[in-house]
Each structure stands twice: as structure tokens, then as C-alpha cells.
Amino acid sequence: MGSRVEFLIRRLNEEGGALLAQLAGFTAPTWARLVYPAEQPWTVHDILAHLVSAEGYLQLMIADILKGGPGAPPGVDIDAINAAEVAALTRFTPAELIEKLAAARAKTVELVSAFSDADLDRRGNHPVLGDTALDDFVKLIYRHGKMHMRDVQHAQKNISEI
Questions:
Q1: Are 45 and 92 in contact (CB under 8 A)?
Q2: What tens digit of pLDDT does each residue of 95-109 get?
């Protein structure tokens, strides 16, 4: 059947490839579409910036946990980090952000490739989930993009029904 690490690498590659293909197919009007109209409104472009930032931040937490650290610092304000990171990355074009996301995913796969199955049981603090196994940190990386792409599709569907 294969190891848990091999399974996660396969999912990271499959989901990453599907996500990148979906993003590459978006047109200019799609990038400007508002998906989250709440306190910090995010367009599809902003979501892409968030995905780039979040993957990098999760890599840092994972590396910290592997070295025996806590992961995310206690009380970290993930909403503030997300807002600041998205604002900093909005200067990049969608094509540049897609390249950054592809590079981040390749780095994640490289990081996970060095894991043993036992490493996946190490625990650390995730800013949203709290005390979490590294296995779940990695799963969150590939599920995160899927979640946001469902929201993008939902926003597109709602626009087309008007």
C-alpha cells in the first residue's frame, strides 16, 4: 500500500496540480471577482495571494515542529497575518502568484519527502486547529486550496444566476 508519507506526497502533487491548472484557466474578470465580501473583502486574486502566503507559513510551522519547537506561537493573530500577507502580495500579477504557488508546493513536497511516517505523529500548535499532528498540517495544505476554490466557484455561480 505505501507509507503515509508517500500518500501525502501523492495528494500534495495531485491536488497542487489540479489547483494550479484551475487557477491558470481563470480570465481577467475572474481575478477581480469578489469572493469574501466581509470585513476584509477578498477577490480571487487575493485568495491566490493568501494561498501562497499560507503555504509558506505552514512550511515554517512544520519545520519548527520537526526541530522540537511549538509550531505557531501561542495567541498568534492569524487573521492579522493573513491580511498583512495578502496586502503585501497583491502587487504581483496572477501569473507571478501562480509561479510562487507552484514553487511553494514543490518546497512543501520536498519538505514532506524528508519525513518518516513517525514524524507525521509529531504535534504542534496550528493557529486555527490548536494542538495538531503534522499529518494534519500537511493534509490542511492540500485541502486549503480546494476549500477556497469551492468558494470561488460558489461566487461565480451566484454571479451567473443574477
A1: no
A2: 999 999 999 999 999
